[in-house]
């Protein structure tokens, strides 16, 4: 069988492993279900083309095992025994459509054309046929892969069948390695700069493959397999806007723009430090207080600073609570390859998603630490599936990780934190990743009056100025009492502080830095 031979004879170890695993999944499926009970969902895309050829090889090997006679040698595995379904749509590219029909003719595929939406089409298919499992070319990283395993029952509300995803863990590079090594035909659009193909309404060529003439007069596109690292496979798909880091607001309206937020709106953040060393008292957390200052400077109120243990459940519990209480959660510590680095996994757990290989992140790590972090062994390249957005900045060797309203910072000291914060703010200015508010202003006054004397007038003042934070603290038991006024409006702060001063003798309060 030519596919099996080509892969076995190639010298790409990673491809061989991926191939063997996919064939294993296919053979398990064929052991569980009869050939009449399975179907291939084929749409002429690159992933389903890979799947088609894997199934051709898998069926051949399965038959060979069943017959124990070296397979169906007469036709070299050319007749395709699995029912194949194609959901034909008016909005598919004509090249995709014609490639699908050509493939059916070339490989003797008996193809059922369905002209209904996926769900109704599958309902009709299952009513008329004993189908129990459907092979799909879904890969981790596809929006529809979230939560799926290699064998995943169809979702509630869908007709009952098993979704079988033999190439779930394949990367973009694996797909192209397979198509090129096995020398099979694929849709011509992939040679014209398309890297992932949806409908004609949401797909354009991938701009990263564009080559222009020196005078800018003509543009050409390189083939899809030359997209070096695969992390920008979907750059040719019409992008949904990245959500603002703003949990409470985005649940009200996803489209809240910076300018729509008046200075009266209050955004709150919480800070989570992960580190047993802080709880043991061996290390002091300087980053937490630094972040409080920084958040204040962009007008965010900090509602909580927590230190948790290096433990998935502790992190998950803290993140879960704060992500729904606050507009943004900043978390740092516990990031890396050590056994104690569980922060990212804790964030995944808080959102109820699993950790999945992130090709884009893996690429960054590869550039940073070279081949030491290789292939599927690279645990640092596992990120929360389906909710991760990488925030790129040229000053950052590795992008920041954002999971909805949780931002994971990799800083380990104040210098690194300074740099990451500055990048975050630049990103906020250029693409609204984070809402920048009017900064807080504050005034502090010291007094030698006693707490008892000040207490009542101060409570009255709080009721009078609910838009201000009015607080008091002592630097020592004997020393002066410090009264603080924090808010967004300096004139309100001045009004409140004057009002307080007027209640006591002149000179009772003196402003301090
Ligand atoms: C054979 C097949 C089975 C599917 N099974 C499910 C399913 O169980 N649950 C689900 O939510 N979507 C299912 N889908 C739909 C896909 O997950 C996804 O919504 C669709 O591929 C997105 O394509 P679109 O962007 O063109 O709408 C299935 C699609 C196909 C082709
Ligand atoms: N119209 C369709 N008819 C049949 N199967 C489909 C259809 N659309 C999607 N599928 C199934 O869903 C899988 C995933 O689709 P997806 O668009 O991610 O991959 P692809 O089309 O194979 O490749 P590409 O990512 O380059 O578009 C396909 O491999 C196929 O199994
Ligand atoms: Mg597609």
From TrEMBL:
- Report the source organism: Nicotiana sylvestris (Wood tobacco)
Provide the protein name: FAD synthase
Give start and end of each MoaB/Mog domain. 270-403
Q: Which InterPro entries match?
A: MoaB/Mog-like_dom_sf (IPR036425), MoaB/Mog_dom (IPR001453), PAPS_reduct_dom (IPR002500), Rossmann-like_a/b/a_fold (IPR014729)
Pathway named in the protein's UniProt entry: Cofactor biosynthesis; FAD biosynthesis; FAD from FMN: step 1/1
Q: Which UniProt keywords apply?
A: ATP-binding, FAD, Flavoprotein, FMN, Nucleotide-binding, Nucleotidyltransferase, Transferase
The GO terms this record gives for MF are: ATP binding; FMN adenylyltransferase activity
EC code:
2.7.7.2
**Which biological process annotations from GO are given for this protein?**
FAD biosynthetic process
Report the SMART domains cross-referenced here. MoCF_biosynth
Q: Which Pfam families match?
A: MoCF_biosynth, PAPS_reduct
Which reaction(s) does the protein catalyse, per the Swiss-Prot or TrEMBL entry?
A: FMN + ATP + H(+) = FAD + diphosphate
Query: Can you tell which superkingdom this protein's organism belongs to?
Result: Eukaryota
């Amino acid at each position: 069988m030519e596919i099996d031979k080509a892969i076995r004879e190639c010298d790409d170890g990673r491809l061989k492993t991926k191939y063997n695993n996919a064939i294993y999944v296919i053979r398990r499926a064929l052991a569980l279900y009869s050939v009449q009970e399975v179907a291939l969902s084929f749409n002429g895309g690159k992933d389903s083309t890979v799947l088609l050829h894997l199934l051709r090889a898998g069926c051949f090997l399965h038959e060979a095992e069943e017959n124990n006679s070296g397979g169906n040698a007469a036709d070299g595995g050319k007749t395709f025994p699995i029912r194949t379904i194609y959901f034909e749509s008016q909005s598919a590219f004509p090249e995709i459509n014609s490639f699908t029909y050509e493939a059916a003719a070339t490989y003797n595929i008996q193809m059922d054309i369905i002209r209904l939406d996926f769900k109704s089409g599958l309902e009709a298919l299952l009513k008329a046929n004993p189908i129990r499992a459907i092979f799909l070319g879904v890969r981790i990283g596809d929006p529809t892969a979230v939560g799926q395993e290699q064998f995943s029952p169809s979702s509630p509300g869908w007709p009952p069948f098993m979704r079988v995803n033999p190439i779930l863990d394949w990367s973009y590079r694996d797909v192209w390695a397979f198509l090129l090594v096995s020398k099979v035909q694929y849709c011509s659009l992939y040679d014209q700069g398309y890297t992932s193909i949806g409908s004609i309404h949401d797909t354009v060529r991938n701009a990263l493959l564009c080559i222009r003439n020196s005078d800018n007069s003509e543009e050409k596109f390189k083939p899809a397999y030359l997209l070096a690292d695969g992390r920008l496979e979907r750059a040719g798909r019409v992008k949904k806007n990245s959500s603002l880091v703003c949990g409470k607001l985005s649940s009200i309206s996803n489209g809240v723009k910076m300018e729509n937020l008046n200075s009266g709106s209050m955004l709150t953040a919480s800070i989570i430090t992960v580190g047993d060393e802080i709880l043991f008292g061996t290390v002091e957390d300087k980053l937490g207080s630094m972040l409080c200052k920084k958040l204040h400077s962009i007008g965010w109120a900090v509602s909580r600073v927590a230190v948790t243990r290096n433990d998935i459940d502790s992190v998950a519990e803290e993140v879960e609570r704060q992500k729904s209480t606050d507009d943004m959660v900043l978390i740092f510590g516990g990031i890396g390859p050590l056994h104690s680095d569980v922060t990212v996994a804790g964030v995944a757990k808080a959102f109820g998603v699993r950790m999945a290989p992130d090709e884009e992140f893996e690429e960054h790590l590869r550039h940073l630490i070279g081949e030491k972090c290789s292939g599927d062994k690279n645990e640092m390249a596992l990120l929360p599936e389906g909710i991760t957005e990488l925030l790129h900045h040229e000053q950052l060797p590795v992008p920041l990780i954002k999971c909805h309203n949780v931002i994971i910072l990799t800083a380990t000291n104040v210098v690194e934190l300074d740099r990451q914060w500055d990048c975050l703010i630049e990103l906020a200015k250029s693409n609204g990743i984070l809402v920048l508010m009017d900064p807080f202003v504050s005034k502090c006054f010291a007094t030698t009056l006693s707490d008892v004397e000040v207490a009542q007038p101060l409570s009255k003042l709080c009721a009078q100025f609910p838009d201000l934070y009015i607080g008091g603290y002592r630097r020592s038991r004997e020393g002066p009492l410090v009264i603080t006024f924090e808010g967004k409006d300096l004139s309100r702060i001045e009004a409140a502080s004057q009002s307080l001063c007027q209640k006591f003798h002149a000179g009772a309060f003196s402003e301090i830095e």
